[in-house]
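Re: that backbone. Tokens:
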């Protein structure tokens, strides 16, 4: 088997070998990784100095394929689960406010406060969970995560941009006719099947889940 792996790895390009060793270890047999590392050493390839763009190009081509993106019906399920959670949290807070200050707050003022608080908690909910865990409760239920178009864990800035884009009118339904909604498109992020990592998302998780 080792000889077979050696022959296979000998046919790989430098960037394919670098991609296997740096990002694809979870999707290859241990002997295949050993063969790839041996081939890299034999060629004298310094994978740490290999231009990152060459490796990222391969990953980006894989990540952005439509087949790798979560279906629209799953995105709708995310929306329903997350909105229900946010709504019930706001209802509980609203009930507490009514019991505490009900006589001093008019119905119209209460509606305004409720709406403002709803948007505020929604913003915090999405921003915190997607930055900290790459997923909301809805995405946790469906086994999906938020990544950049190159498979990276999103930065704080990218998550903030993604969250602000949710304020675009009808954003929540923008993925019904496309697998990428407004908040995906304008923040250069994607929702895929996979597991959270602290750095890179293994392409195997993207392609085989």
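Recovered sequence:
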């Amino acid at each position: 088997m080792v000889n077979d792996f050696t022959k296979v790895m000998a046919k790989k390009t430098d960037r394919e070998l670098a991609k296997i060793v740096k990002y694809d270890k979870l999707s290859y047999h241990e002997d295949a990784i050993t063969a790839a590392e041996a081939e890299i050493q034999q060629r004298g390839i310094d994978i740490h100095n290999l231009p990152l763009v060459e490796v990222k190009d391969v990953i980006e081509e894989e990540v952005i394929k439509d087949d790798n993106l979560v279906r629209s019906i799953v995105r709708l399920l995310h929306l329903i689960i997350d909105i229900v959670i946010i709504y019930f949290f706001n209802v509980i807070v609203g009930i507490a406010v009514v019991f505490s200050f009900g006589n001093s707050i008019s119905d119209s003022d209460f509606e305004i406060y409720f709406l403002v608080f709803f948007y505020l908690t929604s913003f915090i909910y999405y921003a915190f969970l997607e930055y900290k865990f790459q997923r909301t409760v809805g995405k946790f239920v469906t086994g999906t995560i938020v990544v950049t178009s190159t498979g990276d864990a999103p930065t704080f800035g990218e998550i903030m941009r993604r969250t602000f884009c949710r304020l675009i009118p009808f954003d929540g339904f923008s993925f019904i006719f496309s697998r990428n909604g407004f908040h995906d498109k304008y923040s250069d992020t994607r929702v895929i099947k996979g597991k959270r990592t602290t750095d890179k998302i293994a392409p195997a998780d993207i392609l085989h889940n």
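Residues 52-65, 198-209 have pLDDT under 50 and may be disordered. The longest strand covers residues 144-148.
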